[in-house]
Amino acid sequence: MKNESLLIEKAALGDEDSFSILINNYKNYVFAIILNFIKDYDEAENVAQEVFFQIYVSLPKYDQNNFKAWIGRIATNKSIDWLRKKRAKFKDEAIEELDNNVDLNANPEMILLEKYKHDKLKKALDSIPDIYRVTLEKFYFREKSYETIAEEEDVTIKTIASRLYRAKMLLREKWRYEDESL
């Protein structure tokens, strides 16, 4: 522990060898945390690089209080940030795809009706829990198979079928609720 404190102090002052030793000591720990959030090995490696960079940049501000927990918090936050960015990007792509399907030669009423349906669908999708929404989006918008989704989510095919069924039921309820509230 005392040796680690000395390494941290040296690394905070810019000693690259000390920082390298710290990273080697904690790289498996950091990677394990990231893989709990991000199932794609290559993406997890990219996030790990971001974590190590953040540690390097933030090390001079570290207050010498439970280094492992501090690193774990950084890894968790970077993983959550990555998931949020991916979710936002995926939503933008799905919306853009829906927007591109609008026929500009159609009459204004049809365009308005399509936009209304699009907005209603987006609102309904946003209102269901992420675990179901993501499965639904992967299957219908990305056209992935049950097997591919199960592998990505590290669950059984039966679990994906169940999530997809539940997602459709929730979406149907939201859609019905929207119609009744008009």
List key phrases describing it.
single chain, 182 residues, mainly alpha, Rna Polymerase Sigma Factor, Chain: A, Arc Repressor Mutant, subunit A, 8 helices
Based on helices, strands and strand pairing, what is the structural class? mainly alpha
Q: Give the % helix.
A: over 70%
β-sheet strand percentage: under 5%
Largest sheet: none
Q: What's the tally of helices? A: 8
Q: How would you spell out the order of helices and strands? A: HHHHHHHH
| CA-atom Rg in angstroms | 23 Å
What would CATH call the architecture of the largest domain? Answer: Orthogonal Bundle
- Tell me the number of strands: 0
CATH domain class name of the largest domain: Mainly Alpha
What is the CATH topology classification name of the largest domain? Rna Polymerase Sigma Factor, Chain: A
Q: Provide the CATH superfamily of the largest domain.
A: RNA polymerase sigma factor, region 2, helix turn helix motif
In terms of per-residue confidence, which ranges show pLDDT below 50 for 5 or more consecutive residues?
Answer: none
Whole-Å distance between the termini?
Answer: 64 Å
The dominant shape is elongated
